[in-house]
Amino acid sequence: MTDLNNLKTHLLSQVDAAATLDSVEAIRVHALGKQGEITALLKTLGKMSPEERLVEGPRIHDLRESVTAAIAARKEALESALLEARLASEKLDMTLPVLPEPQGSVHPVSQVMDELAEIFADLGFSVATGPEIEDDWHNFSALNIPETHPARAMHDTFYFPDERNGHRMLLRTHTSPVQIRTMTSQEPPIRIIAPGRVYRSDSDATHTPMFHQIEGLVIDRGINLGHLKWTLETFLKAFFERDDIVLRLRPSYFPFTEPSVEVDVGYSVEKGQRVIGGSEGWMEVLGSGMVHPNVIRACGLDPEEWQGFAFGTGVDRLAMLKYGMNDLRAFFDGDLRWLRHYGFSSLDVPTLSGGVGA
Length: 358
Ligand code: PHE
Known about the structure:
Bound molecules: phenylalanine
Strand content: 15-25%
CATH architecture of the largest domain: 2-Layer Sandwich
Number of strands: 11
Mean pLDDT: 89
CATH superfamily of the largest domain: Bira Bifunctional Protein, Domain 2
Radius of gyration: 41 Å
Largest sheet: 8 strands, mixed
Low-confidence stretches: none
Structural class: alpha+beta
Number of domains: 2
Order of helices and strands: HHHHHEEHHEEHEEHEEEEHEHH
Number of helices: 12
């Protein structure tokens, strides 16, 4: 009687202490296998008298059941602990970067746009944006280019087939519509730059159907051409990081400015290469002028009270001049070799003390 009790206590504590599935299995074979201790006890039942069997039978069966259940429970506990350990050790951190180092870099266009925002922020300009899908009023009419104006034909515009709210929709051909959007939504005085994509149906080494412009607009009282010239000079000196920047202002024509001025920047030739600075030759860099009274009026402002200047230039062209690329199309090929050659570290942050000289 006590033997059975002792055996039960012994086996159950062994099962409890088993640390591996293998040792649980060893206990099972030892107790319940063909040669097992409990199997041997069961075999003794046949030789017992019926009275003895009535007493011993249930006790031996109870022993077998308890040990079987304990073994199954221990096995399950060990198995789930094993699974937990595997899950913990084999987990993947999905937030880790796929590659240890970034492969791309900042595109020269982004770099130049950042540099321009930085330079103009220092002059008190904020950045404004407008939609790339425009209506003809913002892109043309409000800019003093009515339906019949020949300048509309000059713009090689991509038109959408449908009208929206009675307006013909198009891909903006310049960033100048942002002038209109700013003047109609903001009280003067206004000092903004507007960088962004523009579209024209044109493609060769110096033209791509999509390119980048940056617009500048100042609206205030008593603004004159001198303010424009100083602003452009200051901006170009900071951008090209040279003090010997010489500007040449040529009379020109834009429907939305009067007078209109085209600005050339002087270059010199160093080791057979054109470099900005000096005045051996001239390169056209931007269009500008005093905002036409009709434009100011179209935006609901009184041109007697408010005047201003505007300028617009190609960001890609500025990048080519500053960083020495010669084919505009390569800007949009997405060729990593080109980007590695001309690109910038992805951690580059243009500031007035680094990246852009003051
Ligand atoms: N929008 C003109 C262009 O695309 C540039 C410009 C802007 C000229 C502002 C004058 C004033 O060519």
